[in-house]
Write a structure and sequence with these properties.
The chain folds into two domains: about 140 residues, P-loop containing nucleotide triphosphate hydrolases (Rossmann fold, 3-Layer(aba) Sandwich); about 70 residues, no CATH class. It contains seven helices and ten strands. Helix 3 packs across helix 4, helix 3 packs parallel to helix 5 and helix 4 crosses helix 5. The two termini are about 30 Å apart.
Length: about 220
């Protein structure tokens, strides 16, 4: 699903990612961890093609990201689900409208939109909050709406950038259980987090970045 070969990304001649190589198989669950500034968010931006590397090669779902034109980039992103720490919900739209928004851009028929939105909100335990607005939800509920929005297109790959950063420990563990369930259903999941205790509680393959370099690829957190 993901292949990086000697990927480097610089900002103003300062390396954010330094010669990183790894592969993630279809259906894997992987953590990406490291201290603030280690390069986690930069790496995710490279994976959803918000940026291109200065050197190296990135393939996602068999596609060389450097070779995609603008139209192909849009098509590529439709097969991704991206979850952000700050939710990025549309404040003047209801929960249902937030989740359906991307489907409306894809010209999905209204009835099919309603069906898909209901199914994904039910999976998130939010089927009774469809008409609520974001400000009426708790932080945990808002994050689940953002996950529902990422999943409604039935993506092959979910990328999550510090998804528990604004949540308390109990809600964080609930969210990780949701990601594990999504993965169990066959979706490849990559979660970027600095929270080592979260990784310890939900052990999985873990990629550790330090100053932009991949220094460990193993199971769980290092002792």
């Amino acid at each position: 699903m993901i292949l990086l070969e000697e990927v480097t990304k610089n900002y103003k001649s300062r390396p954010a990612i330094r010669g990183v190589s790894f592969a993630v198989e279809r259906g894997e669950f992987v953590f990406l961890t490291g201290a603030s500034g280690a390069g986690k968010s930069t790496l995710l931006r490279l994976l959803y093609r918000a940026e291109l590397p200065d050197r190296g090669r990135i393939q996602v779902a068999g596609r060389d990201l450097a070779q995609l034109n603008r139209r192909e980039v849009a098509d590529f992103r439709r097969r991704l689900g991206v979850v952000f720490q700050d939710f990025k919900l549309l404040r003047r739209r209801t929960v249902g409208e937030n989740v359906a928004f991307v489907l409306s851009l894809l010209d999905v028929a209204d009835r099919e939109q309603q069906r898909l939105v209901y199914l994904v909100l039910k999976q998130m335990g939010l089927q009774n909050r469809t008409t609520a607005y974001p400000e009426e939800l708790s932080g945990g509920e808002q994050q689940r709406v953002s996950i529902a929005r990422a999943l409604v297109r039935q993506p092959d790959l979910v990328l999550a950038d510090e998804p528990t950063g604004n949540l308390d420990p109990d809600r964080s563990h609930e969210l990780m259980e949701l990601f594990k369930e999504i993965n169990y259903q066959g979706t490849t999941v990559l979660v970027a987090t600095h929270d080592r205790s979260l990784i310890a509680a939900h052990p999985a393959r873990t990629l550790l970045l330090e100053r932009g370099s991949l220094v460990r690829d193993g199971w769980g957190v290092a002792s």
